[in-house]
Amino acid sequence: MTDSLPTVAGLPMTRGRCPFDPAPELGALRAGHPVARMEFPDGHVGWLVTGYTEARRLLADPRMSSWGEALRSPIALPMAADRTAVPPGMFTAMDPPEHTRYRRAVGAWFSARRTRTLEPRLTELAALHLDAMAEGRGEGPADLVTEFAEPMAASAICELLGVPVAERPEFSRAIKALFAVHSSAEEAIAGWHAIGVLLRGLVESKRAEPADDLLGTLVTEGRLSDEELATIGSVLLTAGYDTSANMIALGTFALLEHPEQLAALVADTTLTERAVEELLRHLTVVHAGGIRAVGEDLEFEGHRMAAGDAISFSFAAANRDPALCALPDELDVTREPVPHLAFGHGIHQCVGQQLARLELRVAFAALLGRFPGLRLAVPAAEVRTRADSIIYGVHELPVTW
Question: Once rounded to an integer, what is the mean pLDDT over residues 314-327?
C-alpha cells in the first residue's frame, strides 16, 4: 500500500559510467517500486512511475490531467514556479475538449501519409548540410551537433511551419535559452517571449501573403486567432527542434560507441527503420520524463492517489523495462520494433512523431552513406553530455572520417 512506499528525493538524473544509460537509481526503483512516492522541487510529494506497464496504463487513463496549471516539474527549472494561466493554443498543456480541438487542427499535417511527401525535401536538406560540414571542416574535426544535427532539425520543422531561412538562427538561440536548466528565469522567459514574437510576426506575414505551409494553411482557414496560431507554432517549433537535434547527435554517438551495430547498419541500409526505433527506445532523450496530475481520487495498483497529486513518468526507465523487451539494456539495431514510450502514450502522444521518425531515418542514412568511415575525433570520455537540460544529448560531438 501507499504508506509503505519509499519517497524519492527528486527525480534521479545523474547518469552512471555509460552516457547512454539512465540514472542507475531508476532501474532499482523500477525493479522494486515501479510506482513510488517522490518529492518535487517545490516540496510537493507526488508520484514517480518507472515501470513500463504502469506508465502505459496511467498515460491512457482519462483521469490523468495535463492541464498546465495543475502540473509540477520533476526538476528545478527557471519557469517551473510560474504557474500562470494556460495560453490559448498551448494544447500540450490542456485536457479535452480544448486539447482535442487544437490537436485536430494540426494533426493532419503530421500523418504518416503526409509526412512521407516530405522525404525528398528532407533528403535534399540533409545532403546540403553534409556538404557544408565537409567543406567547412578544414584540417580539424567537425562538430556534428552544430554542423549537422541542429541545422537538420531546424530545417525540418521550420520548413513545415514556413519559417524563413534568415530568421532560423534567432529561433535556435531562443529555444536553447528556454530549455537550458542553468538559464535564469529571466533568460528562459525571454527565450519563450522571443519565440512568440517571431511567430506572431510570421503569422502576420502569412495573413498578408498566404502560403501553403502549416501556419499559412491555418491562417487561411480562419478558425484560429493570431494568438492561438503563434502559440501552436511555438509549441511545435520547440518540441520538434530540440528533441530531433539531440536524437541525431546522441544517436550518432551511440552508434560510434557500438561499432558492431554501426557496421551492421552500414552494411544493410534496410535496417535503418529498425535502428531508428531502437535508438529512440534505448536513448530516450526526454530524460526528465512526462508529467501529469491526478484529476480525481483513484486507486492504482493498490496505491491511493489523491486529486491534485503530481505524477512524473520516467520514460527512460520504462523503455529499459524487461516487460517491454528482452535484454532491454542492449542496443540492437536488428531488434523487431517494440511499442516504446519515447513519444509518450495516450491522447498526448507526440503529434509530430511520424515527422521525427522520417527525419531521423533520412539523417542517419545520409550521414552514414556519405561518411561510412565516420569516427569520433576525441576519446568518448571527453564528449560532454547535456545532463543539465530537459532534453538529454551532447553539447558537441567532434567527428572525423
Answer: 98
Label each residue of the chain as H, E or C: CHHHCCEECCCCCCCCCCCCCCCHHHHHHHHHCCEEEEECCCCCEEEEECCHHHHHHHHCCCCEECCHHHCCCCCCCCCCCCCCCCCCCCHHHCCCCHHHHHHHHHHHHHCHHHHHCCHHHHHHHHHHHHHHHHHHCCCCCEEHHHHHHHHHHHHHHHHHHCCCHHHHHHHHHHHHHHHECCCCHHHHHHHHHHHHHHHHHHHHHHHHCCCCCHHHHHHHHCCCCHHHHHHHHHHHHHHHHHHHHHHHHHHHHHHHCCHHHHHHHHHCHHHHHHHHHHHHHHHCCCCCCEEEEECCCEEECCEEECCCCEEEECHHHHCCCCCCCCCCCCCCCCCCCCCCCCCCCHHHCCCCHHHHHHHHHHHHHHHHHHCCCCEECCCHHHCCECCCECCCCECCCEEEC
Complete domains list, the chain, with CATH? 2-400 (1.10.630.10)
* pLDDT tens digits, one per residue of 103-115: 999 998 999 888 9
